[in-house]
Fold this sequence. Notes:
Order of helices and strands: HHEEEEHHHEEHEEE
Strand content: 5-15%
Mean pLDDT: 90
Strand order of the largest sheet: 1-2-3-4
Number of helices: 6
Shape: elongated
Distance between the termini: 78 Å
Oligomer: single chain
Structural class: alpha+beta
Helix content: 25-40%
Amino acid sequence: MSKSTYSNELSHIAKTRICSDRNIILHDRSIYNDSGIYFNFNELIDNKFKILLIGSEDISNPYFGGFFFFLGTFPDQYPFFPPNILARTQGEGTRFHPNFYVSGKCCLSILGTWTGPPWTSCQNIGTVALVLKSLFIENPITQEPGFENCIDNRAIMYNKVIEYRTLKIAVIDMLNNPPSIFECFLPIMEQKFIELYPKFNEKLNNLMEYNNKTFKSPIYNRNNSMNVYYDIISLKTIFLDKYNELIEKYNIGKHKENIPINKSKIKYKRVSPNELAKLYNIGYKKISENDNNLWIVKETKQGIKKWVKCKK
């Protein structure tokens, strides 16, 4: 047997093994769900299956709260060949991970699409899902050949792009308009969004310091598709509106910490230099990287150093 086919002309062995895989998944469903892994199968035994992965529940992870869809196709000769997997959470030309192409191709050795430990017939779609889930790490650029030890500004820029696009596309866009055939996961996604909303709000508050800034990915940036402008104020409103919509849909009371945004308390963009004034001598002047104006360190009557914008 030299080549796999995906025509849904499943062999008897393939049908038996697919049925076994499905039963294992259903039996261990709660274990997978606790890890943020969800499966969906068609009622009749065929060669298709769907996976939803929650990127991460760690607020510092760039994939926090993201809804990542994958479409799987069993080969006619399963399990002697691996399933074909396509990433279906897409938008704005975003390369969400070095292993996931914008075309949907997933590069993994067990799928036969990359070098490394190959697929074996003792593996199953649960194995595949766990490997996919393991890719949502805090510094994903290290998964790109040549960047294995990258922890410099390139890693930071790529993370910032992925972090914002995850919130905007993998969370909000997928909730509002999931790809066709993945609507089956909406109840799970909506409940998970409600559960994570306090953390989403906390994360967005943490990102306010980057509001109105632009980040450019050092890789995969064809036609500036990986340039991201951080509009956190708008995103906070979008998240709050979605939360209010869903708690009304599911008849859930509002939490007091999730009341509508008080615009008078919004943290606006910093205009003075980022460095603390106390680090410099009185009279020190510097052009701010935030507004390109000249600022000087002065001392208040209370003896506290602060930045004061120089008069033109």
